[in-house]
Structures are given as C-alpha cells and as structure tokens.
C-alpha cells in the first residue's frame, strides 16, 4: 500500500509539473465518465486503431446493449492522459491502450484489472495463441493484465526498387555504418536518405535511439545505478544518430515521430526508414501508400550487439477503477480475437491486419500471401528481441527501448527533449547528454539509497 501511495503521489506531481492533464480537444479529465452500457476507450491515433474504430459498428451490431465511445489522442497525449487518469483512480475510461512498459508496473500497483479469468472464461479466445514473449511481457505474477492488440519490434524499411537500381544489396541484418553510407548515397534534392524520429517523447525519439545506444555498447546505468548517459559509448551513438538525421534525414526532423515518418516514406519522399515493424500496415496499403510492393525489409541494424530491435506491444487493459468491466472485456475480447484478424483482412485488406500478436495469424493463407515481403522478418525481429539482456554490458534494468522502472516516463521525456534540441541544432550532443546525465543521476541515487 505504501508503494502504491508513493507511486500515485509521484505520478500526480509529474502530471502537475509536466502539464499532463489535457485541455479541451484532448478529452479533458472529469468532463465525462463511463457509465451504464457505454464503454469509453482511450486510444492512440495510429492506423490500426483507426481501423478498429471503422469496424466497431460490427461490434455494436452484435452487442446492441453496448455503445462505444472512442477518445483518440496522439501518442504523447495518450501516455500522459491515460497515466494520470489510471493512477488517480479516475472512472472516465473503461478500456485503455497501454503497453508492455506500463502493464506490469501498473498491475503491481493495483491499477489494472486481472484479465486472466476473463480470457479463460471466453469460449474460443485462446490466450495461448498470443506470441509468448508478448504474453509474458503483459503479465504480472503469472496473470495477464492487458492483452496485445498488435506486437512489434523494429526493423529497416528501404526502397528496394531504388536500391536495386543503384546496385545495392541489403543483407538480412545490416550494420549502422552501412545504413549511413546508403543514406548518403541515396540522399538528393527529391528524396532524403533516411527518416528517423526526432520528436520529443520517451516513446518517440527515444524508441529508435535507445536501440542505437544499446548496439553501440551504451547503457543508461551501470550495475550500481551510476548514470552513464555521458559515457563515450552513449555519446558516440547519439552523435551518430543526430549527424545521420541532420545530414541525410527528413526536413524538420526534430518534430518528426512515427506518423510523420510514415507519411514521408509511404509517399515516396525517403529512401529508408528505421522504425516499428507494424508500419507495414501503412506502407503496404494501396489506399494510403504510393510504395506498395516497392519496399524491402531487414532486421534492425547493429554495431556490437546482435538483435538490437525493440520489443513492444500496444495492448488493451481495463482500469481497476472502471465500473463497466464486463462490457469493457466484451469489447477487448472482440478486438483481440482471431475472428477480428479475419474481419480486418476481409473488410480492409490483409496487409492491414494487426501484426505480431497471434501465432495463428501467420498460418492464414491470405495473410501469408500478403506478407511475403515482411512476415518472416517481423516474426524473426520480435522473437530476436531480448528485453532481459538489452545491452552489451550488464545493466540493473530490463527493457530495450525503455527502462522498466516507474521513473522512466518522466526521465525519458526529459532526456528526449534534450536530444530533440540537439537534432534541431539548438545545442551540441555533448551538452544535451551532460544535462541528461544530471537527470539520470537523480534517478540513480534513489535506487542506490534503496540498496
């Protein structure tokens, strides 16, 4: 209980300091509540969730007693809003879109509903069909507290047609040095060499950057919780990332996140993009992409550490404070069931199926055909990610693109702002890391005091 109270107090203070309580237009707290047979869903505005909203009338037709209300937010807004509401026991959301970062921690704090019995008592749901690494990452003490909607690692996407024309053969697992050379070679007045995230946010620029830091031999903390963000390995990795995106990357890189890079690449404006494996749902969709069938896919680039891609899943959970848990589970089970996968494929196209969640998805003949270019490399990337050993040197934390500690939301956000400033040219990488080191030292000392 004391730990819960401390966590609640810390998050509430962070919310106040960081402006996490959003204003009108972002579905502000307390302006409405989930009641009766209305299920209110807080979700990130990405393509897979947009598809779910488009198909939600199918759920309402099958469940006439339940109405759905979607609150759609940008990634940074969603993280802030959902965290503040769930931590404080708010009743405005019945279903929250979270991840394998929040789920185990929030389950330990008592903020989420245990979904294991719901899953076991739902005929045909088959929770054992979820990719094991994802299922385990969403569990606490052997029970699932959120279920994967889609799972992802990270990989390199490149314009295979242009690379073939240039005589460049991309291996299954390239190096970052190769990627930088290709970016330089492909960069030109009509097309940039690569798109890399630069937008502030621990789930934005830090997601790809942390995998670069890991494979360059860097780490956030050593085994004694001494901060390492100004170490030579981290500085070399961050300097490489910043130089690459500034010299060969997209315009306004410091404001580019997943969505912006998806637009750049899908509209044929960039030769490469390193990001989430789930991006295939956008790139291979003829309705939104001009590069369908022209894209090659390779494992996350490396330097010293193999299999440097991240492991992540957008998942659906029920806040413990919700008064509408049964109806919320009905919606969650519909949206994460095998039949939903088939519904998306048949209604919207097989390339738009939520990837990387269920093993059975990769046994569907229509999906196998649609995913020939990316299906196997997606699975290999997810299975190759190792959040228990994310770095070259030993570390006291787990997680690839995030640190699985409560303080990382605030720490990661602060560090990401420094990195984004360096990408924008507002300061040097060295200065950005010196300030980041100070932030990390505060967190490190708190763990040193506990030991």
Instruction: Report the helical percentage.
Output: 40-55%
Overall strand count:
10
Return the CATH class of the largest domain. Alpha Beta
Q: What does the average pLDDT come to? A: 92
Protein name: Sugar ABC transporter substrate-binding protein
Pfam family, one: SBP_bac_1
Keywords: Signal
InterPro entries: Bact_solute-bd_prot1 (IPR050490), SBP (IPR006059)
How is this structure best described in words?
This is Sugar ABC transporter substrate-binding protein. It comes from Mycolicibacterium agri. The chain folds into two domains: 2-152 and 312-372, Periplasmic binding protein-like II (D-Maltodextrin-Binding Protein, domain 2, 3-Layer(aba) Sandwich), CATH 3.40.190; 154-309 and 387-450, D-Maltodextrin-Binding Protein, domain 2 (3-Layer(aba) Sandwich). The longest helix is centred in the last third of the chain and has 22 residues, at 429-450. The strands form three sheets. It has a five-stranded mixed sheet. The protein has a three-stranded antiparallel sheet with strand order 8-7-9. A two-stranded antiparallel sheet has the order 4-5. The protein has helices spanning 2-18, 47-62, 75-87, 102-108, 116-120, 132-137, 160-165, 176-186, 206-215, 232-248, 258-266, 280-283, 325-335, 338-348, 365-370, 375-384, 408-423, 429-450; strands at residues 38-44, 67-73, 95-99, 139-140, 143-144, 147-152, 154-159, 272-276, 295-299, 312-317. Helix 9 (206-215) packs across helix 10. The chain is built from 18 helices and ten strands. It starts with a helix and ends with a helix.
């Amino acid at each position: 209980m004391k730990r819960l109270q401390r966590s609640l107090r810390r998050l509430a203070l962070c919310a106040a300091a960081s402006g996490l309580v959003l204003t009108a237009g972002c579905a502000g707290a307390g302006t409405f509540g989930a009641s009766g047979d209305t299920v209110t869903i807080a979700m990130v505005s990405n393509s897979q969730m947009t598809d779910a909203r488009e198909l939600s009338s199918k759920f309402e037709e099958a469940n006439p007693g339940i109405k759905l209300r979607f609150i759609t937010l940008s990634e940074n807004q969603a993280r802030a809003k959902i965290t503040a509401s769930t931590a404080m026991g708010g009743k405005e959301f019945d279903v929250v879109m979270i991840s394998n970062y929040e789920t185990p921690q929030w389950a330990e704090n008592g903020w989420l509903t245990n979904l294991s019995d719901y899953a076991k008592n739902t005929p045909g749901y088959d929770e054992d069909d979820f990719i094991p690494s994802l299922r385990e990452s969403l569990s606490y003490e052997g029970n699932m507290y959120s279920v994967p909607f889609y799972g992802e690692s990270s990989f390199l996407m490149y314009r295979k047609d242009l690379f073939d024309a240039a005589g460049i053969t991309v291996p299954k697992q390239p190096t970052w040095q190769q990627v930088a050379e290709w970016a330089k070679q492909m960069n030109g007045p009509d097309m940039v060499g690569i798109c890399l995230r630069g937008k502030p946010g621990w789930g934005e620029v830090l997601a790809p950057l942390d995998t670069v830091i890991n494979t360059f031999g860097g780490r956030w903390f050593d085994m004694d919780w001494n901060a390492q963000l100004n170490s030579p390995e981290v500085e070399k990795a961050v300097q490489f990332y910043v130089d690459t995106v500034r010299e060969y990357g997209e315009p306004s890189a410091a404001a580019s996140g997943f969505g912006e890079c998806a637009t750049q690449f899908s509209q044929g404006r960039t030769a490469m993009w390193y990001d989430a494996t789930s991006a295939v749902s956008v790139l291979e969709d003829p309705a939104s992409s001009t590069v369908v069938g022209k894209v090659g896919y390779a494992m996350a680039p490396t330097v010293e550490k193999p299999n440097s891609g991240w492991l992540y899943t957008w998942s659906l959970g029920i806040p413990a404070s919700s008064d509408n848990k049964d109806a919320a589970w009905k919606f969650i089970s519909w949206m994460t069931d095998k039949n939903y996968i088939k519904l998306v494929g048949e209604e919207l196209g097989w390339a738009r199926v939520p990837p990387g969640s269920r093993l059975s998805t990769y046994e569907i003949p229509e999906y196998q055909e649609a995913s020939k270019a990316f299906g196997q490399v997606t699975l290999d990337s997810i299975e190759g990610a190792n959040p228990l050993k994310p770095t070259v040197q030993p570390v006291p934390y787990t997680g690839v693109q995030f640190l699985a500690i409560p303080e990382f939301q605030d720490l990661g956000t602060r560090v990401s702002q420094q990195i984004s400033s360096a990408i924008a040219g507002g300061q040097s990488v060295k200065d950005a890391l010196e300030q980041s080191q100070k932030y990390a030292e505060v967190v490190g000392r708190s763990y040193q005091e506990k030991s």
